[in-house]
Amino acid sequence: MIPNNVLVIGPPNSGKIRIAQCFSKDVDTTSIPKESHSGLIYRCELNTKYYKTSVNLLIEECPEERPSDTDKFIEGLNQWYKGFVSEEYVELRKALDGVIFTMNSNSVSVSDWEMIMDQYTRIKESLDERIFSVVMVAALDAPNDALLEQYEDGCIQRGIEFVYEGHEGTNEYKEKLGMERIKEILQTHTWSQTTSSTSEEYDKHKLDRIDNMTKGLLQPDDGEEMPLDKIMEKLRLEKSKVEKMKPENKESYVKSVIEDLLQFI
C-alpha cells in the first residue's frame, strides 16, 4: 500500500520526535542525528474498524542547524516556507494529508507566538483544504492556563486545532486531550490511501453502535449522558468556536468536526 504523508514541523525541543515515536512505536534513538532532525521519516500503521493504512511522519526542523533560538527559528521557518511553496515542491504539497506544527512555549514570547502562528497559517493555506492541521505545544514546563487559553483562541481563529502535550484524559465536553487527541485525529481523518476493513467487521461495529444508541434512547435517564447527548453537546461547543473564527477558516474547520463526529453515527 502507498503510505499517506503527514508533515511534522517545528523548532528543536518542541516534541516532533515524541509524536513520531508515540505513533510509530520506534523508540530507537541511535540513528537520530544530533545536528538536525530534518529529513527523518517514521512509519506508523493505523488499524480501525473501517480501514487500514500506513502513514509516513515527515520530520522538518527549523533552523536545520543546532543550537537554535527563537530568532533563528523564525528566520529558518521563513526560508523553509519560501522553498516549500515553490514549484520544486508541488508534488510534496499534493502528497500531504496533514501537518502537525510543534511549539516550545518556554522559549517563545507572546509576540513571537503571533508571528510564528501567522507563518504556520501561511503554510496551511498553501495546502489542499482536505488536510488536517494541528498545533501541539510541548509540555516541557507547563504554561499557565491563561496562556494556554490564549494559544488555543489564536489557533481557533486561524482554523487550526490546538493540542497541549501535557494534558491527559478528556475535558468537560468528553473530548480527548494531549497525544490521545492527536491519535483520534489520525484515526478519524479521511486518508488518500486506505484498505477497507472486512465488511463483516464494519457491519458488526455499525450494528453495535446502533444497538447502544437505541438502548440509551429507550432507557430512562439514570444520570449518565447518552451518546446522542454527547453529540449534541459537542456540536454546541464547536458552533461557539466557529463563531470566533475568521470567515475563510470556518468551512475547513467545520468539515474536520464533521469527520470527527462520523465515528459516532
UniProtKB/TrEMBL annotation:
What Pfam families does this protein map onto?
Answer: Adaptin_binding
Q: Which GO terms describe its molecular function?
A: protein-macromolecule adaptor activity
The record, for Gene3D superfamilies, names: 3.40.50.11960
Which terms does the UniProt entry file under GO BP? vesicle-mediated transport
- Output the superkingdom of the source species: Eukaryota
Q: Indicate the transmembrane segments per the record.
A: none
What is the annotated signal peptide range for this record?
Answer: none
Q: Which UniProt keywords apply?
A: Chromosomal rearrangement
**Presence of keyword Kinase:** no
Entry function: Involved in gross chromosomal rearrangements (GCRs) and telomere healing.
Q: Which family does it belong to?
A: Belongs to the IRC6 family.
Supply the name of the protein.
Increased recombination centers protein 6
The upper taxonomy is:
Eukaryota, Fungi, Dikarya, Ascomycota, Saccharomycotina
